[in-house]
UniProtKB/TrEMBL annotation:
This is DUF1468 domain-containing protein. It comes from the Bacteria. Residues 12-145 form the DUF1468 domain. It comes from Bradyrhizobium jicamae. The chain crosses the membrane at residues 43-60, 80-109, 121-141. It holds the Pfam family TctB. Keywords: Membrane, Transmembrane, Transmembrane helix. The lineage of its organism: Bacteria, Pseudomonadati, Pseudomonadota, Alphaproteobacteria, Hyphomicrobiales.
């Protein structure tokens, strides 16, 4: 008796991507596509759908020809740290301002790993916060408060 060489997780993920891409193509079939120089409303959804279709076909093919490789068990610490950092940013960006909310977000996200060092984390948080303020507020001109009101 031979064992099937199917990685069910990759196969199902690939089929899911193909299904989402197919659904997008069907849903946008009546929109004008246009071309790269004159994009219609259906241009980007179709481009993204075809890219998604390509990834889906890749994962489907890989799932059919590769032995099952197990996925590592979910680690609770990184999951909670990242979720908390995103949630805290969403809740504090307007009240505390982009600068402080970004610093707090990076520090919370750094709790996802045990390898982080406090000084490096704070330096990176300050640098990233400054870059976010420069990009979003100064260059793009978005109406986001930088500091608390």
């Amino acid at each position: 008796m031979t064992r099937l060489r199917i990685d069910l997780q990759d196969l199902l993920f690939g089929l899911f991507l193909v299904a989402v891409a197919t659904g997008t193509l069907v849903a946008t079939r009546n929109l004008t596509v246009g071309h790269a120089a004159d994009m219609g409303p259906g241009y980007m959804p179709r481009v993204v759908a075809f890219a998604l279709m390509g990834f889906g076909l890749f994962f489907t093919g890989r799932g059919l020809w590769r032995m099952r490789v197990g996925i590592a068990p979910v680690q609770l610490r990184p999951l909670l740290a990242i979720l908390a950092s995103v949630g805290v940013f969403a809740l504090t960006a307007e009240r505390l301002g982009l600068a402080i909310a970004s610093i707090v977000t990076v520090i919370l996200a750094s709790l996802a790993t045990r390898e982080g060092r406090v000084v490096e984390t704070i330096a990176f948080a300050i640098l990233l916060s400054g870059a976010a303020v420069l990009l979003f507020v100064k260059l793009l001109g978005l109406p986001i408060p930088i500091w608390p009101r």
